[in-house]
Write a structure and sequence with these properties.
The structure holds two protein chains of two kinds. Chain A is of the alpha/beta class. Chain A contains 35 helices and twelve strands. In chain A, a hairpin with a 6-residue loop joins strand 10 (369-373) and strand 11 (380-385). Chain B has one domain (1-39). The termini of chain B are far apart. Classes of the chains: A alpha/beta, B mainly alpha. Chains A and B meet through helix 2, helix 19, helix 23, helix 27 and helix 33 of A and helix 1 of B.
Amino acid sequence: MSNIKIALAGNPNSGKTTLFNDLTGSDQYVGNWPGVTVEKKDGLLKGDKNVVVQDLPGIYSLSPYSLEEKVSRRFLVEENPDAILNIVDGTNIERNLYLSTQLAELGLPMVMAVNMMDVVKKNGDKIDFEKIAKALRCEVVGISALKGEGGIEAAKKAVEMAKRSVVERGPGKLPDVPHVFSGTVEHAIAHIEESIQGKVPERSIRWYAIKIFERDREIIKKLEIGVGEMKHIEEHIRDCEKELDDDAESIITNQRYEFIQGLMSKALTKSEIRKNKATLSDRIDRIVTNRILALPIFILSLCVMWWLAVADGGPGTILTDWANDGFLGDGWHLPFTTHEVDGKDYETASEEFAKAEATVKAWEAGEKKASVEDEETGEISEEWDIDEAAYNAAKEVEEPDPSQFGVWVPGIGALIGAALEKMGVSETVASLVNDGAWGGVATVLGFVPVIFVVFLFLAFLEDCGYMARVAFIMDRLFRKFGLSGKSFIPMIVGKGCGVPAVMAARTIENERDHRMTVILATFIPCGAKTVIIAMFAALFFREMWYVAPLMDVIGIAIIVMGGIALKKSKAFAGEAAPFVMELPAYHMPTITGIWRHTWIRLKGYILKAGLIIFPACVLLWFIMNFDFHFNLVGEDGIDKSMLATMGGWIAWLLAPLGFGTWQGAAASVSAEIAKEQATATLGLVAANMDGASTAAHVTNLFASFVPACVPDASKGSVAKLIAMSFMVFNLFIPPCMVAIAVTFREMGSKAWGWLAVGFQLFVGYTLAMSIYQLGMLAMGCGFGVWTAIAIIVDLFCLWAVFRPGRRAEG
Amino acid sequence: MNTASIAVLAVIGILFTLAVRRVLKKGAPCECGGSRKVCSCKGGSCTGRCSCCH
């Protein structure tokens, strides 16, 4: 038998995707909130390539109400998998069995995998698998998907059952399905079965009959039951309803739960201690989801994450400095091998040489003062008087050889530079490699440590169960403004990447809320935007680490305020959709789980540096070094290059934001390829600026954007203001091209797509313009036409948020 | 332009072509694990060609 199809079906957040990854060795995204899997995913079973495992979206029933239910039901009923592997959350078994009873009625071979058995055992509960197996006519096994225990065995059992079913079940032989309803209902179902015989696959006849009893319109329409026949069936249903004094759908639901309760009273033994005691999760939730404390705790967790990633002296910054200066730059000393030479360590000797070099340079230029700049910020860090004696002494200082101070490992940048020099390549080609190809990639890769810290922290929050609480907390906040917490789920996904965030919005059935969520989801800064935040935090706001979490808070504020404003418009007015989700029990995440989550995202980021940033930088280098006649322009003629000319075409649009130069335009436009490209382009276009490092070049580039009318004393502050405006603009305008393409598709039409992009552009532009114009006003740098426009637009935005709401139509 | 420069240019050209080809063929890599090639499937009839996890 070849190509056996095993369908993984179960409630949301029961561990299907974790099991799927375990069974197939794939790296599908796992999240402990509903709606993570929206589409069916296929994978081959490890060790048996003839078995296809299919991960279905999480569902609570086989009713066709939500997108996930439609997807799963259509697959199970129409595509006839050979067996079902039903994943059941062992810690919530009673509720999970509601779906299991329906799956069993499909008549397909079924193995029930009771997941989270490690937690069940830890809680002291006992589940009698045999009794459940007997009642539901299926095989039952205990597994722990997170720990990788029992999953493969359960899948093999399902394969065995699928093979056995082909051999054992001949024509006319009906599968053994559970009968969970009372006599009256069973009687009606038997009549319906009789009426539809021959119209449906024999083994699923009971499931179809129950659906018809529930008056499932989709099934009735599909089976094309005649009016006369339907009238006869209706009589049986009505008799039943009359006798049990309820509507058909409620009768089925109630009797299912009665059956499950009866079964659980025999098969589940709860720990005596736990029965009367609040669980640890309950106790944590009393604080974490507390009405007053919830939001501050969430903001605090964001602050901790960003502090670890970008604060001066934090692990993210230490690692980033090492990556930029050491691994990707000149090189680094192996730890524990360094020693002093003539009573000085390498750092002191290097600083002395830099000062001596500056002294020689300044004296030869006829100056009486010399200075050195901070490599990271480009600001003058030290200035001193010089005379002839100092000059002569400085000339004697030799450049320290790093290899004398310990075991020196050369960095990739140094190796490439040395190789090019040794090969004797021309200056232009060396510039293409150093400034273009490698320079751009190194700028992006240099931020891997920051991204790593952010993703690691997020993975921890997700895996321990806290992120699911965030959705719950946000639902409470959002609901006050007429929005649903369901809209926040895509936004949590969006912290990693905007593309899945936009697609995750599909789980929202209400079309108006769906569209609104698509428009708003990408305002949460994604992983790529994290690089922009990290770069600007490192260059301009080192002592203000809180600027980084502030960007997340601004993102959430835009979502709330944008949502309120949109909800008050005719196109989006309406009640917020109800939001139901289970809060998973808190648990200590496994190292492999956290690593997998982090690595999936990090891998994508690193790959992007090679596949997107590298070709983009080569292309940008080319158009930055050649004019439209394909003449090499050189460093001094860079303003005549194709890039400068094209940047100039749109630079005027950015003038009200403070960076209306070709460099600012080139960086912002190229960021639409991938957001982190903004950092790489800035490094490239600032290459001809003063300074010893890319960081200093970029700092000096922004200093060059400061208008000439600004007094010298305020120039530094205004440069920071422009940097803030640039960062905010690039974070909150439409996301990268791919996310925009997905937005257009998900919005359903070009008009809606343009509306989404237009809204995002308006928000990003307005925010950046307000920061720059009002900041300049606050610094006393004058009141101009654009200041007035910024104030008018801000007032319009406030009016859009606070004006009286519109009632829902229809 | 000397031979070494031409050789370096050729390497950059090959890497550039490979990267662009890979992106055009499979889509840009994505932080969510797969590639971002936007598949045409909607609502469940995914063909499996879409390697993006959502």
